[in-house]
Amino acid sequence: IFVELTLNTMAEAAKPKALILGGMGFIGRHLVKYLVDNNCCSKIRIVDKAIPETASWSEPFIAYLRNPIVERMQASLAQPAGLARAFNGDHFDFIFHLAAETRFGQNEGVYKQFVLDLAVSVGQAAAQHQPRRFIYVSTAQVYDESRSPARENSKIKPWTLLAKFAAQAETALRGISGLPMVIVRPAVVYGPADVFGLTPRLICGAVYKHLNQPMKLLWSGDLKLNTVHVRDVVAALWHLTANGADGEVYNLADKNDTDQEKINQILSVLFRIETGFAGSAMSHLAQLNMKNAVASINDMHTQPWSDMLRASHIENSPLTPFLDQELLYNNSLCVEGSKIEQTGFHYQHPVVTPGLVKEVVDAYIVQGLFPMPAGWFLPAGMSAPTPATAAAAAATAPSS
């Protein structure tokens, strides 16, 4: 028995150690889950300025923080002391850099500080730490807008401010000597705990269900909005710790070739609403004064959403139907995600289905952060909270 225990201990110690910077976010919590579920590591350190309560972690995710191999460290990586703490006390084989500003509509100063400058500081510290691999999660919005799929060597011409500074961060990281880096550029990431991907459209679907009105979006149904499920993203991140080459870039996009029409079809099924599009003429008219058009669109959604939250006794929620102006232009996000498959990776969710999208709403309903739409049914074993518990759960959620 002693020999068997010793061998098990040695085998556990031989597993790599992972450092997840920005691990409290959407992708980070799923990466923690994946690494624990698949017994990948002997230690996982999560570093983030946020805490589970303010990052809207649900109980199933919080349970992973209680695993003995998981260490959570609260620290601001934008501060030298916090950055030093993140790397102190142990050596990590793999470093995942997820710490960045992910909200749209911020000013250039915010993105410079919390995307570009932060990436440079982290990259320099990581190079000194000498990991086996450093993985930087960028965005597919760095590519020139096109309805033809962007490959990893396609023209770089970011069409959001966030992507502009992510592209600059990629360039700066490449210039750091001794950093064994791989870059991933995901399309729109969706799945449970998504806030900024498909979720604003899901909220709009719920709003139009509440209003009993058809939902019509700007532009046309063939506007590309390529997607990738968060579970495929985190599986790809781990896959790239042992596959692919240093210095390589890998897009992450499923096989669905998602566009606005495909998303609308799913919303129509889930919320039982009529969907459509404003069309080219009306959309171009809106574009002549896009600021006012976007303000009007968001006003149409935010007040009914607030009413729905109040009626469900949800006092606070991180979820909002607000769509930033940058995301409402006629810009296609069209990405070719097959290069990573040449390394042996397989997408487990190649198609966006109503079930996968419903899973996002179900999880938020159970957390007490999303009002249950009329006619909605939760899976067996799941239930919406009572008004009292909904208010308590939302009280700790960050405001949007």
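(ticket continues) Second input and output from the same batch:
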Amino acid sequence: MATTGQGSAGGAMAVHVADAGQGGTSDAEDPIETVHRRLYDLKWHVPRGDRLTPKQWLAELVAAGEQCSCGDVQAAAHAGEGETSSLVRFLKSDDVETVELASAAVALLAGQGTYRTTLTVAGIGVRITQRGFAGSGDTLGNQVWPSALRLSELCGQARDEISGKRVVELGCGPGLPGLLCAHLGALSVLLTDFEDAVLDIARSNVTANPDTCAVTAVARLDWTGDVAAFVRDHGVFDVVLAADCVYNSEHAAAVAQVIAALMAPGEETVAVVVLGDRKGRRGVEQFESASTDLNLHVTRKHETTEQSEWILRRCVDGIPRETPTTCTWENTQPPQTQ
């Protein structure tokens, strides 16, 4: 694929999705085109034309669907809504492998599958596995959301302040921003989240990016737990990244406290926070107030109707520092608008 991701505010983002891995599709064909073509076959009671067996047809559909974004596959399914119900007949097969492939195909088309793509940010391709959102809070971390795409874009613009630095990502989900930092030359990267299933996805993505394995680790972090013990185990960091980590009033202050605890002493330490869905997001004011109380100073803030992003640095002796105009983070460009 070669589609451009969209920011939550509708602005075009320099994030591209490409096919990843091997499947039954030809090198010349876009995987989503293969999905459309195989779904079209359902009108003719597959297999048809290519002389594929049902199992081969299903395998090609699944292989292509896993290389596409969740949204693209769901759009394809919606376009062929009258035909996709025909997949159910494969679930009645006596062949176990055919049933497994049919189940995987139904899950992919329903937005509940596993999607393996390469996301390219700042000219660097990061192999990412995502899983469908099942509509409950514990599956929110299964996908790369627009705020994580924007955070990755900011990291790409500030690569000179990433290289050689210790980086931690809070609420990492699949881990795109942190993995990009590893590709950008970070000294070390720690991906953190709370849910075990999400941490498994993050680990699989580290493995899928072998160039990052030497510097990237994954750890569980409970924002309301013993953060001091976490710091004793893992140390402090030069760059703290957080996308969509504030989403209710109850724990907003805890997020600010975790960020402050993980930031290394010194004026150059930075926290980069991006939040989407401004209209429906709760806890933003509490997060800002708690950050101020913790001697964190906002050196750059950019807001659109739906997204907010902050650059936070430590105050010096309780006084906000004068940020040099040469600091890359403070000079990152806002999202482009269409």
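Agent notes: The chain has eleven helices and eleven strands. The longest helix spans residues 96-109. Closing as not reproducible unless the customer responds.
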